[in-house]
Amino acid sequence: MIGYCIATYRCYDDKADFAKKAQSIAVGLTVGSWTELPEAKKAAMEKHLGKVISVDVHEPVNLVAGERYADIRIAYPDVNFSRDIPALLVTIFGKLSMDGKVKLIDIEVSPEFESAFPGPQFGMQGVRDLVGVHNRPLLMSIFKSVIGHDLTGLEEQFYRQALGGVDLVKDDEILFENPLTPLEKRVETCMRAARKAKETTGQELLYAVNLTGPTSQLNANARRAIAAGANALLFNVLAYGFDALHELSADPTIHVPIAAHPAMAGAFYPSPYYGISANVLLGKLMRLAGADLVLFPSPYGSVVMPKEENMAVRDALLDPTISLRTSFPVPSAGIHPGLVPLILRDFGSDVIVNAGGGVHGHPLGTEAGGQAFRQAISAALAGQPLREAAVQAGNEALKAAIDAWGVREA
Amino acid sequence: MIGYCIATYRCYDDKADFAKKAQSIAVGLTVGSWTELPEAKKAAMEKHLGKVISVDVHEPVNLVAGERYADIRIAYPDVNFSRDIPALLVTIFGKLSMDGKVKLIDIEVSPEFESAFPGPQFGMQGVRDLVGVHNRPLLMSIFKSVIGHDLTGLEEQFYRQALGGVDLVKDDEILFENPLTPLEKRVETCMRAARKAKETTGQELLYAVNLTGPTSQLNANARRAIAAGANALLFNVLAYGFDALHELSADPTIHVPIAAHPAMAGAFYPSPYYGISANVLLGKLMRLAGADLVLFPSPYGSVVMPKEENMAVRDALLDPTISLRTSFPVPSAGIHPGLVPLILRDFGSDVIVNAGGGVHGHPLGTEAGGQAFRQAISAALAGQPLREAAVQAGNEALKAAIDAWGVREA
Fold it and tell me: In what residue span(s) does the Ribulose bisphosphate carboxylase large subunit ferrodoxin-like N-terminal domain sit (chains A, B) (predicted)?
């Protein structure tokens, strides 16, 4: 819709006149009042007035308290707000978020609004180009434990992960600036380990170092990390706001992929009645703000997100009708090699398989952990059952992983 | 607790071993693993290990699914994270927010952590000093509608509000940078109206102009507003993150009170199962980050927050055991003069009575709207029933307000 951003809300109420509620949102969050305006004023204010696009009431056959709801779509004129995510969110869900049981379940921004956002600098294709891998899902691993470890410990952990054939290694999101492993030293140390591993593996590797610190120093800290050799960044977007991510991704001097961590996302998306749904929070807004990779809880592992929500996040990150570059989906948490067939069934090759415990907890060690994933990915891509692949020569790491954690074939 | 920040979580689970869960949080969100560490390593890592302070299980007599929960308190070593709110939140509620039904219900930061925060620059006392009012609750009014209005319209609205005897006027939080009423022009226009009204009322008045724009420009925009004459700021904290507020309040060149708007807070606090409770979100963290005034939904009006939660927010903003300046509580939404006795019962004089429709919707106009509130405040402070005060000579504005909206005596 040209010149309007559309928000969809799910509103629960046992008795409400939802059509009336929709009208009050459209007026209340834009021009403030309407029916009492003189006609001449209405003509002048028309372009600022929100519009009710649809009101879709779900009326339970037998009313059970708390189960009656409506999906309400409201179009907000772009002219009412500046072209940034804080202005958009405050307009469509600032006051309204506190007005009863109401959840923001979708956003469609106008082409004009979107044009203010360069989006991901690399996107899925750009990240593939950097690591030189185009024919399979990528593999990312996470440091096992980092707090209290020194540079030597980190280097050793990094090297063993890299030897296993992973394409990316990410910092733990709870590793902040600290005297044991300060930002620049950490980058230098880990990139040295990456180069050393490459002598064996021949593989390019991205290291997403955790970008932290005062908001006003984020871009400068990113430049420091890059000057020290960082070739990717990890960022806790929701702790700083989407605009901070946008300002990183829109900065031409910060030309490395940014991986968005979902820390704190569970404060927003899980309730059916309140908050912001995952497809908006971790999908559309992350891509709009410029995340090249987006981590989110998978439906397979320990920290779960329902399958349907997961697929909605994936769709938002990859939607080909959006003109921005795509964001690489990274379903995370509780992933072991035996889950790879499920991940590929749901994501195809357009996914980064991401594991921490599933790499470091491997019975034969961290290196074998990475190898087991790579073997599982090869088998799953070939349509070969993992148990069958596991008994082939050269796939000992996969066999040990399956013996430890089992398999869930697609 | 020296050297530790303590988080309290309410975790719902019908079957969980909550003691075990608490232990897994304390270890998982700090050192990562513990029992399998060699003894020598344990000695080195001890200072990084989270500690379970208490696990208070609420075991329903007859188990109803979904009603069994535990309040779990975990102490996190300060040494694990930098002294900023993003680091604190990512540590205590980053990953954990996505791990089942878990709500962050309290935070107690260590004195060391708190020492990195100057807190409110003015606080309640400082704001009172600026307007020169120490013996009654303050009165704030909100523009009725602002979008689509030009400077002349805004000036007229501002003047009529000011004539009614309000102490503060705040922008609508959805008024962003726009060609009709750009920041500096808006400030100049409204402050001129304030000076003009002062000729009649003799009153000092704060105008909280809405601070918006790109994150990196917030402090510069604040300085522009101040240079144009602004004597207060309104800020949508949650759309930018608490650290952005901290960076404003800690900036010595931005020496005006900051009013924190709760826009988007409803995405966090209302669910019993998920998110962050209001006392933390709108209470402790707003004060820590330096809000001089904090707006939040009142339990009286249209946008409601349960009374108990409201009092918890108040307590967090005013808690005398915290060494930071207090933040002025501003319960908002749906307030009319007939609610003043309730507000004073719950907040005493330490409150800002804040109204939009309750001022502009007054049957005798905006000016009478402000007067009615001032008359209600005087009566309530004197312990006089409003209906009795309303029939006294000089209190015609109050009478008209009560005829329109009624009274709820305390």
Answer: 7-109
Distance CA(A59)–CA(A65), nearest Å, equals 11
The answer to whether residues B56 and B70 touch, using CB atoms and an 8 Å cutoff, is yes
C-alpha B386/C-alpha B394 separation (Å) is 13
What is the structure's pLDDT at A355? 93
Residue B170 CA to residue B206 CA, distance in Å, equals 8
Helical ranges in B142-259 per DSSP H: 151-163, 183-201, 218-227, 237-240, 242-249
Nearest CA in chain B to A179: B79
Distance CA(B236)–CA(A304), nearest Å, equals: 31
Q: Would you say B12 and B64 are in contact if contact means Cβ atoms under 8 Å apart?
A: no
Q: Do domains A4-114 and A123-405 have the same CATH topology?
A: no
Chain A residues within 8 A of B44 when measuring between CB atoms: 148
Indicate the helix (H) or strand (E) that contains A292.
Answer: none
Element (H, E) at B319: none
> Which amino acid, A382?
A
Angstrom distance (rounded) from CA A322 to CA A334 = 31
Which of A86, A104, A268 lies nearest to residue B239, judging by beta carbons?
A86
Contact list, B247 vs chain A (CB under 8 Å): 214-216
CB B186 within 8 A of CB B154: yes
SS3 letters for A169-188? EECCCCCCCCCCCCHHHHHH
Tokens of A168: 């990316």
Instruction: Provide the residue ranges of all domains of chain B, joining segments of one domain with +.
Output: 4-114, 123-405
Tell me what the pLDDT averaged over chain B comes to.
95
Please tell me the distance from the alpha carbon of residue B255 to that of residue B191, in angstroms, as a whole number: 17
Angle B366-381/B151-163 helices, nearest 10 degrees? 30
Structure token digits, residue A141 = 């691993």
DSSP states of A161-227:
HHHTT-SEEE--TT--S-SSS-HHHHHHHHHHHHHHHHHHH----EEEEEE-S-GGGHHHHHHHHHH
Buried b (16+ CB within 10 A) or exposed e, A101-122: bbbbbbbbbbeebbeebebbbb
- Output the CA torsion B362→B368→B371→B375 (10° steps): -70
Dump the DSSP string for B332-393.
Answer: ESS--GGGHHHHHHHHTTS-EEEESHHHHT-TT-HHHHHHHHHHHHHHHHTT--HHHHHTST
Domain formed by B123-405, architecture: Alpha-Beta Barrel (3.20)
Query: Buried b vs exposed e over A206-232: b needs ≥16 C-beta within 10 Å?
Result: bbbbbbbbbbbebbebbebbbebbbbb
Sheet with A102-108, side-by-side order of all strands: A51-58, A69-77, A4-12, A102-108, A275-276
Positions of A marked active-site: 95
Contact B257, B88 (CB under 8 A): no
pLDDT at B304 > cutoff 90: no
**What confidence score (pLDDT) does residue B303 get?**
62
How far is CA B406 from each of CA A309, B336, B337, B393, rounded to the nearest angstrom?
A: 47, 9, 9, 19
Euclidean distance between the first and the last CA atom of chain B, given in angstroms as a whole number: 39
Radius of gyration of chain A (CA): 23
Interface test with B, best of A146, A215, A261 (most B CBs within 10 A): A215
Question: Are the Cβ atoms of B147 and A173 closer than 8 angstroms?
Answer: no
How far apart are the C-alpha atoms of A258 and B294, rounded to whole Å? Answer: 34
CA–CA separation, A342 vs B356, rounded Å? Answer: 54
Q: How far apart are CA B325 and CA B288, in angstroms?
A: 9
Q: Is B95 a catalytic residue?
A: yes
Q: For chain A, which ranges sit under pLDDT 50? A: none
pLDDT digit string, tens, across residues B65-124? 778 999 999 999 999 999 999 999 999 999 999 999 999 999 999 999 999 999 999 999
Please name the helix (run of DSSP H) or strand (run of DSSP E) that holds residue A108, with its range, or none.
strand A102-108
Q: At the topology level of CATH, where does B4-114 sit?
A: Alpha-Beta Plaits (3.30.70)
